[in-house]
Amino acid sequence: MLEPANPPDEIERLSVLKGIKLLDTPPAEQLDRITRLTAQALQVPIVLVSLLDSDRQWFKSRFGLETQQTARNISFCGHAILQREIFEVADARRDPRFADNPLVTGDPGIVFYAGHVLCSLEGLALGVLCVIDHQPRSLNSDERSQLHDYARLVEEFLHDLQRQQQMQLMTMDLQLSDALFEQTFRHAAVGMAHVALDGRWLRVNQALCRMTGYSEAQLLTRNFQSVTHADDLEKDQMLIGALLSGELNTYSLEKRYLAADGRPFWISLSVTLLRNADGSPRHFISVVVDIDERKQAELALRQLQQQLEMRVEERTRELAVAVEQLNREIDQRIAAQSRVNAEKERFQSTLENSLDAFIELDEMGRITGWNRAAGKLFGWSAKDCIGQPLRVLLSPAAVSEGEDVRDVLLDAALLHQTRRTEAWARHQDGRLFPVEVTVADHRLDGSRYCIAFLHDISVRQQNEARIRDSEARLRAITNNMPALISQLDRDERHLFANRAYRDWLGFDELRPQDLSLQAVLGAENYAVAVPLIGRVLQGERVEWDARLQTRQGEVDVHVMLLPAQDADGFYLLAMDISELKRLQQRLEYDVTHDALTGLPNRRAFLTALEQATLRAAQGRRGMALLFLDLNGFKQINDQHGHELGDKVLQRFANEISRVVRPTDTVARLAGDEFTIILDELQMPIEDAEECCLRLQEALTQVHQIDGTPLSLSASIGVALCLAGETISAAALLARADVAMYRAKSSDCGGYAIN
Q1: What are the residue boundaries of the GGDEF domain, all occurrences included (predicted)?
Q2: Which of 700, 708, 675 is nearest to 608 (CA)?
Q3: Cα(243)–Cα(249) distance, rounded to whole angstroms?
C-alpha cells in the first residue's frame, strides 16, 4: 500500500479548511442532494464529499456509507487532491498502490474509485467529491463531465461558506473602525465636522457646537459659508476647488467664523477630501481649532505699537511747536513790547486749540494760565483755577521716599530742568485719574514761569493692563501644557520658556536668556536639529521624534519647530509621547506573539524562518526546523477540560523553551503544534538529534500539572537546510510536517529527520 503524500501547500490548505469551520458539523441538505443525484447519474452505490484534515478524511456528505471518517494515510482521496484532473482507479484489487489497502480488503470493499478535487477560492485543495463501486469499471466522457459538474456544485457550496466567513471578518473590522472613529469624533477637544460638497454640515461634534454657539440641530440646517466671515470666504472656496480638482490632498488656513450671536472669531481650519472607491469626491472632513484669543493678543500688540508710534510722533511735533513758540515769544518780547501781546495772543490761541491740557505756574506754584483742554480735563473753569496752587489739581503721590510729585515737578521746572512723569490728577468731582505731565520753565519781563502739559493716559493704562492680563493668560496656558514651549531668535537665544523647562529639565523659566538650545535638547538631538533650524528660518515647519533626557529620566518627545510670524526667529514645541510609544510597542508585541504561551505566533515564526533559510543559503552554516506535536492532547482536553489543557500547553511551551539555546526560536503554530528554529548549526544532523534528545528528556521529567498527574511527550519532525542550500520556508515547513507524521506513526513518540 502506498500512503498519500502531503501537497506542498499543506499548511495553507489546512488553515483555509479550518477557517471555514466545516469539519465535524451536521449534514447539509444541499450537499446530500448533490451526492444522491451523483449516485443516480453515475449508477454507483457510494458517493462521498470528503474533506482532508491533517490526519483523517471526514465526510461532510455521504451516500451509501455509514462511516463518518477514516484515517488519511489509507485514503484514496489523499491521492486525489494531489492532481487537478479526475483521479480514477478502475480496479483497486489489481492496483499495486491499493491492493492491500484496508478499505479494499475490508469494508466498504472499494473496487472502483473516481474522485474530483474540490478547491477553495484561493485554489487550495480542500477535499474530493468521489464515487465508489464494488465492481471494476471506468468512466466514459459523459460520466466524467457529469462528475466534473457535480464537483463544481459542491465547490460553490464551499465558496459560499468562505465568502460568508470573509464577510463576517470584514463586518467586524468595519464595526471596530467605526467605533474608534465615533469615540474620536465625539470626544475630540477640537471641532470636527463632515461637510457636503456644497458646503452643508453633515455631521458636527460638541466641541464645534460650543465654539460657534449653535446647537447641533442648528448647524445641520446651515452650511459653512453662512458661518464664515465674508472677507475670508473667497480664499476658502478657492482652496476647496483645488481639493476637488486633485491639485491638493488637504489644506489648512486661518479664517474667521461668525458665532451664533454674530461675533466674529478666528479659527485654524484643516480640510481633507474623502473620496469614494471609484475616486469620486464624497465629502469633506474638517478640523477646527479656536485661535481667537491668540489672534486678539496679536492684534492688541500691533495696535499698541501703532499707537505708541503715533503718540511719539504727535508729542514730538507738539513739543517742537511749543519750544518754537516759546523761543519766538522771548525774542519778540526783547525786540518789542508791542509784539509781545500779539505773540502771546497767538500762543494763547494755539494753546486753546491744543488737545493736551496746558497750565502756567508762577514761581510760587500758583496757576496763572489755563487753556480750554485743561478745563475739559479737570472740570474746572479758568476763573475758578487762576491763582490756585498746583496742589488743587494733583494728588500727593510720592515719587520716592519723602518726595511729593508736585514739588518735584515745580522744582525741576524752576531749575531749568524739563521733567516728564506720570501722576494722579484730581477732577472737580473728586475722582482721580492718571495723567502724563511734562514741565519746563520760561521767562517773561524778568519773571520766571513754569509751564506744564498734561495728557490723560487712562485709556493707555487700561490697554497696557489688558495686554499684561493677556500675557498672563498666555503664560498660564503654556505653563500648564504638558510640553516644552519656547521662543528663540535667529541666534538660538531663548526669548521665552514655559514652566515645563523647570519641571522637566530643572531650568529657571524666568531667565530663558541663560538657556542654550543644545543644553535643552542634548548633543545628539541638537545635531539632528541644526540642519532643520535653517529650514525653519526660511519659513518651513519641521518636526521629528526624539528621546529627551529629563529629571524623571528619558522620555519620548515629538519636537516641532515653527517659524515666528512677526519675529526673526522660531518657536519650539516638544510634546511627551512616551505613553503612545509604549502602546505601539505593546501592539507590535501582541501582533507577533501567542496570547496563551507568550511564544512568537505563526506570523512571527514564518518571518524568522524565511530569515534563517536565507542565512543558511548565503552562509557557511546550516539550520534545522523542528515540528513538534504534543501527543495525546485531545484526550487531555476531553478528560480534564480546556482550562487544564491551556495549562498543559503553557507547561509544554516552558519546557521546550528552557531546553533550547537563547539564539533559537520557539513558536506556537496552532493548537498543540509547536516549532523550533535551530539556527547557525555547524553539524545540522548531530545538533538536531541532540536537541531532540534533550527535549524528550525534559518532557519525561513532567509528572503532574496543576495537581493533576500527567506525563508529556511529543512527536518531533526534523527538516534540515544545509549550508549553501536554497529552499523556501514553506517547503522546509512541509518537510518537517511530513517527518513529524512519520515520527507519530512509528508509535514510539520519538523523532524523525527528513
Answers
A1: 621-754
A2: 675
A3: 6
**594 and 573 in one domain?**
no
Residue 234 maps to a domain = yes
9 grid coordinates: 501547500
Q: Catalytic: 362?
A: no
Q: What CATH number is associated with residue 502?
A: 3.30.450.20
The three-point CA angle 77-81-84 to 5° equals 130
437 pairs with which residues across the strands? 421, 454
Q: Give the number of other CB atoms < 10 A from CB of residue 704.
A: 10
What is the domain range of residue 747?
589-753
Which element (helix H / strand E) includes 234? helix 230-245
363-366's contacts with Cβ under 8 Å and 24+ in sequence apart are: 363/414, 363/447, 363/448, 363/449, 363/450, 364/389, 365/389, 365/390, 365/391, 365/406, 365/410, 365/450, 366/390
Residue 634 clears pLDDT 50, i.e. is over it: yes
Lowest mean pLDDT among 207-211, 363-367, 614-618, 710-714: 363-367
- Which one-letter amino acid corresponds to residue 707? G
Number of Cα atoms under 13 Å in the Cβ half of residue 302: 9
CA distance 199 to 79: 65
Give tens-digit pLDDT for 665-691. Answer: 999 998 899 999 999 999 999 999 999
What's the grid cell of residue 651? 507547561
Question: DSSP letters of 339-352?
Answer: HHHHHHHHHHHHHH
Task: Characterize the bridge pairing of strands 264-275 and 281-290.
Answer: antiparallel
Listed residues 262, 290, 318: the one ending a domain: 290
Question: What pLDDT shows up at residue 312?
Answer: 76
The catalytic position among 232, 441, 576, 672 is 672
pLDDT at residue number 45: 96
Domain end position, chosen among 580, 605, 621: 580
- Indicate the pTM of the whole model: 0.36
Q: Contact, 610 vs 677, CB < 8 A?
A: no
> Is residue 437 predicted with pLDDT exceeding 50?
yes
**Residue 550, SS3 per DSSP:** strand
